[in-house]
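Summary of Year 1 activities. Much of the first year was spent building the evaluation harness for sequence design. The harness presents a backbone, in tokenized form, and records the residue chosen at every position. We chose the following record to illustrate the format because it has been used consistently in internal testing since the harness was completed.
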């Protein structure tokens, strides 16, 4: 049996991260885990020259960062309860 190489491991880990992210009830955890999974898919896609995989996941990673930024800014602007 052929040994699994590092790039394949990155791809498998990316798949697991995206799948786990979709099970989160907390939107912040969902966005962070999905961001990590997408970033790993970008790395995977670049290494195997799968440009649609890399491009689409880079786009989704940017969407996650956008929404995380919005969430954290809204929390920072919300006055703390007394």
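For this record, the design step produced the sequence shown next.
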């Amino acid at each position: 049996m052929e040994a699994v190489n590092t790039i394949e491991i990155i791809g498998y880990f990316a798949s697991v991260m995206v799948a786990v992210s979709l099970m989160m009830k907390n939107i912040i955890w969902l966005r962070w885990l999905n961001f990590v999974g997408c970033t790993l898919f970008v790395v995977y896609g670049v290494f195997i020259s799968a440009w649609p995989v890399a491009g689409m996941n880079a786009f989704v990673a940017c969407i996650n960062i956008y929404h995380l930024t919005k969430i954290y800014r809204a929390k920072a602007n919300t006055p703390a309860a007394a």
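Helices lie at 6-21, 27-47, 51-77. Quantitative recovery figures across the full test set are reported in Table 2.
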